[in-house]
Amino acid sequence: MPRLFLTLIAIAVAVVSSVDSHATDRAALLAFKSGVWGNLSDWGSPKMCNWTGVTCDSTGRVAHLLLYKSNLSGIISPAIGNLSALKTLELRFNQLSGSIPPELGMLSQLLVLRLGHNSLTGSIPEAVVCNCTSLTSIALSSNSLTGEIPFSARCRLPHLHHLSLYANRLEGSIPLSMSNFTSLSWVLLQYNSLGGVLPSQIFNKMPSLQYLYLSGNSFSSDGGNTNIEPFLASLVNCTGLQELGVESNGLGGEIPAIIGNLSSANLSMLYLEDNEITGAIPRAIGNLHSLTDLELQYNMLEGPIPTEVFHPRWLTQIVLSNNQINGEIPKSIGLARQLVTVDISNSGLRGEIPETLSNLTMLEKLLLDHNQLSGAIPPGLGCQLILDLSYNKLTGQIPTGVPRLISNFQMYLNLSNNLLEGPLTLEFGNMEMIQALDLSGNKLSGGLPSSIGALKNLHFLDVSFNSLTGMIPQSLQGLPLQFANFSHNNFTGEVCSGGSFANLTDDSFLGNPGLCGSIPGMAPCSSRKQHGRFLYIAIGVVVAVAVGLLAMVCVVLYHYLMRSHLRLTAPSSQLSRFPTGLVNATGEKESSEHPRISYWELVDATDGFSEVNLIGKGGYGHVYRGVLHDETAIAVKVLHQDQGRAGEVVAGSFERECRVLRSIRHRNLIRVITACSTPEFKAVVLPFMPNGSLESLIHGPPAGGKPATAGGPQRLDLDLLLSVASNVAEGMAYLHHHAPVKVVHCDLKPSNVLLDGDMTAVVSDFGISKLVMTDGARDPEVMGDASTSVCNSITRLLQGSVGYIAPEYGLGGRPSTQGDVYSFGVMLLEMISGKRPTDVISEEGHGLHDWAKKLFQHQQHDLGSVVERSLLQFGSPPRGEVEVVVVLELLELGVACSQLAPSMRPTMDDVAHEIAYLRDGTWRNHGVTDLKTSDQKQLNSKARFTV
């Protein structure tokens, strides 16, 4: 009986204790909620274990608090320390501020502590990281934490696997007590203010170490910053080491041969750039059989490049630029068949370019500029994106194979400032994808081949300081040139100021005494030519007057007929191949949504398609503003009616656009009013968008253009950027995932995003879209279009516009939703930076994706000012830290969308969801602090660690 009584008492105590524990957990969570703002609306309902982010164990105790990327702002309540059964505290990627409560050290069962990517300040409490002895993961990166790493001698963390403290303001040295954390596999301490000598008695006791990053600190090497060997020797026993980064520290000394004794089976990435390393590159690097990335740039390395460096069979990137290397490029470079990037620029190279480089069929970027290379360019040399051989002493002619091999892939070719001679071959006209071509500062002769006028994506052309002769082909004026330089040659003849030449001045033609023309500052042509021109002008004026009088008669007659209720419409037999009867050109029954509008009504609405009403030009035609008789403002997209093959493509574009517009309905996609189609005339009638395009919003109206609204031009501030980005993402997500017929747009860019009167963005121009059948679609016309003709047409049209085209399209890839995501990512980065993607390639030799990553890599300690400097078109800089975080999130999203590999890009549904979180406005009302506190709001330069 007494035993039973004691048992009952024990059960009662356990029940009471359990009830008390549940009440304590509930109170702790509610205390946490009271200190934050965010989407925790269901916190307070009866069932605590069903609250957002809360997971309970079998006894009903709170075991996991998972609020990753939950848009929370505010502070972390000390009451969290009362969740005595808590095993995981996950609060990464929010906007939490304040300090880390020392009370978290009461969580004796805590395994995972992740508070990274917030705005936390103050020091790291020793009680938290030392009392919780069961911890397996500590992630406090990307905050503004200060002080030293608080691992005292008493700390014992035998189970700790991941330690992530990067991108803070931590000072001091790496604590020796970390040598006791023998289970560590990830040590990420980069981009702090840590210092002292690189430790040689810590990492040698971590056999499981895989990732070690100490970059961007102030470490020195042994012997007064002269000896790196003790540190590297301490890593020899780390047989699982995969990545080592100690760049940007100012380390001195030579790279010892012992580097070849590191984990040869696993080490794939070695980053030693931006230090003060001297001596030769050791041959022993060739022993690292799994090496993929080797970056040694911005050091003081000397001597030749050892042939063994190119022995690792998986080597994909080698960067040795800005050193004092001499000697030749080893022929063994041809053995590294997986190389994607080779950058040995500005390094003192001599000798000839080895022909073995032509073996590198995967090569995308080859940069050998600013060296002393001589000899001829190997005929088989080529790569897919960037080829820069400028500022060398290369001789001979440009081999015919260079433009042929890069015909579909090259974005940037720079052969300037060499000793190249001879004529330019017609094959240069095959470089359809090229955006920038610099051949200046050579001895080239002959004329400019007219085939260069076929380079429809060329934005930058420099052929100055050569010996070129003949006339400048007039076809060049039809290119989208933003910069051109023909100066200091022997060109002759007349230069007109039409097309892209309208933006040029005489500075682009200096040193060509035989040139004349209408370019501002250029000498006019001879008087005889002027008299002939005046005669032509006079004849043109007479003809124009006659045509004008005839037009006036037609207009008067037309208005008379309209008043008599007579209608002039094209016979139904002349409508396009869409179904006939009481239908319009979109193939639908005539209704108020798609009314029939005649050709003559469009003529009247646009004043005869006059230049005054011209608001846009595209690859397939012109767009005019018009006003119908009922005062409805419209935009009329008139397609060119070319003959032959081009005409077939235009006709196909018209039918595709009509079919696409017929099948979709969404507030962020352009709404078709109707379409007009005869054998001689095809047009799509759309609502007029009074605020123009996103292109003009970012970069301003074209030269001489007027603001779209009477109140003056809009400014792309952060609120409007979020709104426009969200609108476009929602529209594209509908096309990809929710429309009855899935659509791949294929040409997403700022000029194809229009803005209505409320600044709501709508996606337009589906002329080269691909329709993809869904399971529920049963339209045989659409199915045939999607499977055959559309694909063929799109292949010819290169799936979009230069700068926004997904890389895989250049390699023959078919249109895909991932390609649209890439275009969206580039456009998002353009909105933030104010830079056109083609401008970035011309100026810096790489795209906006690399530009954004470079911001983080080279400005790790001052990203707040980087963001302020990058938002060139904003009316004012971000007002506080949280706004800076929003911009950084958008930058990160743009980089993710524009990844080289399609499989690495998010879906448009995911993108729309992410932007919606940023757009909801919570960040605007809470947690705004001074900009200077955001200086350490940084991302890892390798863009891979988020623990």
Describe this structure in words.
There is one protein chain. With 947 residues, this protein is α/β, with parallel strands linked by helices. Among the domains are: 1-193, Leucine-rich repeat, LRR (right-handed beta-alpha superhelix), CATH 3.80.10.10; 197-395, Ribonuclease Inhibitor (Leucine-rich repeat, LRR (right-handed beta-alpha superhelix)); 527-558; 567-687, Phosphorylase Kinase, domain 1 (2-Layer Sandwich). The chain is 26% helix and 17% strand. The protein contains 19 helices and 47 strands. The protein has a 19-stranded mixed sheet, with helices on one face. The protein has a five-stranded mixed sheet with strand order 1-4-6-8-10. A hairpin with a 5-residue loop joins strand 2 (54-56) and strand 3 (62-66). It is flat, with a radius of gyration of 33 Å. Residues 5-17, 403-409, 527-535, 553-593, 703-713, 773-799, 869-878 and 925-947 have low confidence and may be disordered.
Please write out the topology.
Layout: H1 2-34, E1 36-37, E2 54-56, E3 62-66, E4 73-75, E5 88-90, E6 95-98, E7 112-114, E8 119-123, H2 126-131, E9 137-139, E10 144-146, E11 162-164, E12 186-188, E13 195-197, E14 211-213, E15 218-220, H3 222-225, H4 229-233, E16 243-245, E17 252-254, E18 269-271, E19 276-278, E20 293-295, E21 302-303, E22 317-319, E23 324-325, E24 341-343, E25 350-352, E26 365-367, E27 372-375, E28 386-388, E29 393-394, H5 401-405, E30 412-414, E31 421-422, E32 436-438, E33 443-447, E34 460-462, E35 467-470, E36 483-485, E37 490-495, E38 514-517, H6 527-563, H7 599-605, E39 614-617, E40 621-627, E41 633-639, H8 644-663, E42 674-678, E43 681-687, H9 694-699, H10 718-738, E44 742-744, E45 753-755, E46 761-763, E47 770-772, H11 780-797, H12 807-810, H13 817-833, H14 837-844, H15 848-858, H16 863-870, H17 881-897, H18 908-919, H19 922-925
Parallel strand pairs: 3-5, 4-6, 5-7, 6-8, 7-9, 8-10, 9-11, 11-12, 12-14, 13-15, 14-16, 16-18, 17-19, 18-20, 20-22, 21-23, 22-24, 24-26, 25-27, 26-28, 27-29, 28-30, 30-32, 31-33, 32-34, 33-35, 34-36, 35-37, 37-38
Antiparallel strand pairs: 1-4, 2-3, 39-40, 40-41, 41-43, 42-43, 44-47, 45-46
